[in-house]
Amino acid sequence: MTVALMWEARAAEGRGAELLEWVRAQPLRPAPQRRETFTAPADRVLVVTWWDAPYDADLPELPSPPEELLHRPVHRWRFERANAHGAR
């Protein structure tokens, strides 16, 4: 089964570059099959990691950054790949 973990944070005013740098420096051990980092307006940073694991597996997740980098708390979601017909 493929599980995707999504981690999203909004940086404090003017701290988007620092938040992005902080996120990129965070290791995940073991490493996921795939890891991608995205940015969006309002200094938002999104990281998606893909794992070959059951939905409820204990997987390493990115921590929360230092509070001074954040506009609001980190949001986290977990998804599993749907089959070709859209059912689980």
Question: What can you see in these coordinates?
Answer:
By secondary structure, the chain is mainly β. The protein has one helix spanning 16-24, and strands at 2-10, 34-40, 44-52, 75-80. A hairpin with a 3-residue loop joins strand 2 (34-40) and strand 3. The radius of gyration is 14 Å and the shape is elongated. 15% of the residues are buried.
Please give a quick description of this structure.
With 88 residues, the chain is mainly β.
What percentage of amino acids are in beta strands?
Answer: 35-45%
Q: What is the mean pLDDT?
A: 94
- Rounded Rg: 14 Å
Low-confidence stretches: none
Helix content: 10-25%
Descriptors:
four-stranded antiparallel beta sheet, mainly beta, elongated
Record the SSE blueprint.
Elements: E1 2-10, H1 16-24, E2 34-40, E3 44-52, E4 75-80
